[in-house]
């Protein structure tokens, strides 16, 4: 783990950012940057010892933010559906952040597997074509993530900031995630959409694993930026994890086949395994822990 560092985390109230802030604040000075539209989110971070700075990366000045961080973790993301605002927040905002924090020894930019062109169940390498594969659900998301990667690469070269761009796949854990939303849908009797090209495969990664990876992701930061896929070592389908949720709870998943949903998005993790090693939390163990943490009342006795 990182120790005695001054670390900036953007998006510290999010499903992914909060567990990271919680763990890093135990041994480091952590500052969280967010819009903090809900005061209770700020209060929750302050209880962990995180210093909070309120700012909107799309438009606010960063003048009140220190510039002497040793590391910056950029987990901020906006998915409003407004292209002008989302590009300003996600892409321009990342560049403004790197300009302000150019003294950092390492910058981790959390991108997404959503940057890839849809290729069915074929595992995608970091060099594969990019595309707008999330438009059916989030019109601005893939394009904003691709634009942000380009800005981050430019900033890394322009200011000599060692950078890693990590393309994330289905993070989940005690703080929620996509499998948890599926559990809520099952509990509410809703149908879960499946793409016609089945099974619908992804690389879900538990919060224990992605927290453990962060020091190594910062170690491999470089100029020009290092790009690496980031997900669980085992590909798992929506059908599988919903079926297991059914085993745990007795709830029956109901599926609906439709083209108006995301298709498979699996990653070639050769580069990740070389730099970070394999993930440790098996998806079944992680999902059981998620249900125990968030909805223990749904578990079978």
Quick overview of this protein structure:
The protein has 2 domains: 6-171 and 205-230, NAD(P)-binding Rossmann-like Domain (Rossmann fold); 172-202 and 233-266 and 281-298, Alpha-Beta Complex (UDP-galactose 4-epimerase, domain 1), CATH 3.90.25.10. Helices cover 36% and strands 19% of the residues. It contains 9 helices and 14 strands.
Please render the helix and strand layout as text.
Elements: E1 6-10, H1 17-24, E2 29-34, H2 39-47, E3 51-54, E4 71-74, H3 83-100, E5 106-112, H4 141-159, E6 163-168, E7 171-173, E8 176-177, H5 178-187, E9 191-194, E10 201-202, E11 205-206, H6 207-219, E12 226-230, E13 236-237, H7 238-249, E14 254-257, H8 270-276, H9 283-294
Parallel strand pairs: 1-2, 1-4, 2-3, 4-5, 5-6, 6-12, 7-11, 9-14
Antiparallel strand pairs: 7-8, 10-13
Structure write-up:
The chain has a seven-stranded parallel sheet, sandwiched between helices. The two termini are 37 Å apart. Helices cover 36% and strands 19% of the residues. Helix 5 packs across helix 7. It folds into two domains: 192 residues, 3-Layer(aba) Sandwich (Rossmann fold); 83 residues, UDP-galactose 4-epimerase, domain 1. Helix 4 links the parallel strand 5 and strand 6. It has 301 residues and is α/β, with parallel strands linked by helices. The longest helix has 19 residues.
Main features:
single chain, 301 residues, alpha/beta, Rossmann fold, UDP-galactose 4-epimerase, domain 1, 2 domains, seven-stranded parallel beta sheet, three-stranded mixed beta sheet, globular
General form: globular
Rg from alpha-carbon coordinates: 19 Å
CATH third-level topology of the largest domain: Rossmann fold
Poorly predicted ranges (pLDDT <50, ≥5 residues)? none
Domains (count)? 2
Order of helices and strands: EHEHEEHEHEEEHEEEHEEHEHH
Number of helices: 9
CATH superfamily of the largest domain: NAD(P)-binding Rossmann-like Domain
- Tell me about the largest β-sheet: 7 strands, parallel
Strand-residue fraction?
15-25%
Assign the CATH class of the largest domain.
Alpha Beta
The strand count comes to 14
Structural class by sheet pairing and helices: alpha/beta
Query: How much helix, percentage-wise, in residues?
Result: 25-40%
The CATH architecture of the largest domain can be named as: 3-Layer(aba) Sandwich
Strand order of the largest sheet: 3-2-1-4-5-6-12
Terminal-residue CA separation? 37 Å
Mean pLDDT metric: 97
């Amino acid at each position: 783990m990182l120790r005695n560092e001054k670390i900036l985390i953007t998006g510290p109230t999010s499903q992914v950012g909060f567990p990271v802030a919680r763990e890093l604040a135990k041994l480091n000075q952590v500052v969280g940057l967010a819009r903090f539209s809900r005061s209770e989110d700020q209060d929750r971070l302050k209880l962990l010892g995180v210093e909070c700075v309120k700012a909107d990366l799309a438009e606010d000045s960063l003048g009140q933010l220190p510039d002497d961080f040793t590391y910056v973790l950029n987990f901020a993301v906006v998915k409003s559906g407004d292209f002008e605002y989302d590009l300003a927040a996600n892409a321009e905002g990342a560049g403004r952040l790197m300009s302000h924090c150019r003294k950092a020894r390492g910058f981790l930019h959390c991108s997404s597997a959503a940057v890839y062109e849809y290729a069915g169940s074929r595992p995608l390498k970091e060099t594969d074509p990019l595309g707008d594969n999330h438009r059916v659900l989030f019109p601005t998301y893939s394009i904003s993530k691709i634009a942000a990667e380009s800005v981050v690469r430019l900033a890394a070269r322009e200011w000599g900031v060692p950078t890693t761009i990590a393309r994330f796949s289905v993070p989940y854990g005690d703080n929620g995630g996509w499998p948890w939303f599926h559990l809520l849908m099952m509990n509410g009797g809703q149908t879960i959409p499946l793409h016609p090209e089945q099974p619908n495969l992804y690389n879900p990664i538990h919060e224990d694993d992605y927290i453990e990876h962060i020091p190594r992701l910062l170690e491999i930061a470089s100029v020009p930026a290092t790009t690496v896929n980031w997900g669980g070592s085992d590909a798992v389908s929506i059908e599988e994890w919903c079926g297991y949720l059914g085993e745990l709870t007795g709830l029956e998943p109901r599926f609906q086949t439709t083209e108006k949903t995301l298709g498979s998005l699996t990653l070639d993790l050769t580069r990740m395994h070389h730099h970070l090693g394999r993930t440790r939390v098996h998806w079944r163990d992680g999902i059981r822990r998620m249900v125990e943490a968030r909805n223990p009342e749904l578990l079978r006795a």
